[in-house]
Amino acid sequence: MKLIKGVKILLVDDEPHILQFLEMGLVNEGYEVKTASDGIAAIETAEKFAPHVIILDVMMPELDGFEVCKRIKETSEHIAVIMLTAKDEVRDRVKGLTLGADDYLVKPFSFDELLARIGARLRNQFPDLLGEVVHGPFRIDDRRKEIIYMDAPLTLSPTEYELLKFLVLNHGIVLSKPMILDRVWSYDFGGEENIVEVYIRSLRDKLNDKEHRLIRTLRGAGYRMDLL
């Protein structure tokens, strides 16, 4: 992803050394950063700072991350929330996502992974900030609703465009059929999950991905875009 100026990130954690480390790294990447060390301060700072992304720790004094996420999403749905948790438990992840979190990271995590997660959220929720985005052989221009692959524009239906964009922007991440349906077809889609297979097959044909090296199928898990 290109270095972006003007993107605002709020860091929320009660561990000073984590705040300092992340703030230094993100400022170096070109982001505008504010910090908060507890839940109440996080909500107050979010109201004044209006961040694009909030990196939100779960375990904090005053208000925990779940409650902070819930309150922020009630008034600012457009803000992307990435939750940090020391517990690699499904119920914690499900609770955070149910309350409106857009992604999560389990401590300890690498800074490069955090950057990738932030980038994915910006590409999905604030494409106008990025304009044209390049990933491997793909160039996505969301303003023109165009995807260029290997320097050639692809002929895509609106749904194919949204599906391929979702796969590319989340490359390297396993995406389940329910997740794809929710993000591409919307939550109220009343059809069958098999529709995803039909569109994946069409994209593979248009990408000449006969050996499934680009769009990989992980049985029982979903699909993963691997950029060559």
From TrEMBL:
<dbReference type="InterPro" id="IPR039420">
    <property type="entry name" value="WalR-like"/>
</dbReference>
<dbReference type="GO" id="GO:0005829">
    <property type="term" value="C:cytosol"/>
</dbReference>
<dbReference type="GO" id="GO:0032993">
    <property type="term" value="C:protein-DNA complex"/>
</dbReference>
<keyword id="KW-0804">Transcription</keyword>
<keyword id="KW-0238">DNA-binding</keyword>
<dbReference type="Pfam" id="PF00072">
    <property type="entry name" value="Response_reg"/>
</dbReference>
<dbReference type="InterPro" id="IPR001789">
    <property type="entry name" value="Sig_transdc_resp-reg_receiver"/>
</dbReference>
<keyword id="KW-0597">Phosphoprotein</keyword>
<dbReference type="GO" id="GO:0006355">
    <property type="term" value="P:regulation of DNA-templated transcription"/>
</dbReference>
<keyword id="KW-0805">Transcription regulation</keyword>
<dbReference type="GO" id="GO:0000976">
    <property type="term" value="F:transcription cis-regulatory region binding"/>
</dbReference>
<keyword id="KW-0902">Two-component regulatory system</keyword>
<protein>
    <submittedName>
        <fullName>DNA-binding response regulator</fullName>
    </submittedName>
</protein>
<dbReference type="GO" id="GO:0000156">
    <property type="term" value="F:phosphorelay response regulator activity"/>
</dbReference>
<dbReference type="InterPro" id="IPR016032">
    <property type="entry name" value="Sig_transdc_resp-reg_C-effctor"/>
</dbReference>
<dbReference type="InterPro" id="IPR036388">
    <property type="entry name" value="WH-like_DNA-bd_sf"/>
</dbReference>
<dbReference type="InterPro" id="IPR001867">
    <property type="entry name" value="OmpR/PhoB-type_DNA-bd"/>
</dbReference>
<dbReference type="InterPro" id="IPR011006">
    <property type="entry name" value="CheY-like_superfamily"/>
</dbReference>
<dbReference type="Pfam" id="PF00486">
    <property type="entry name" value="Trans_reg_C"/>
</dbReference>
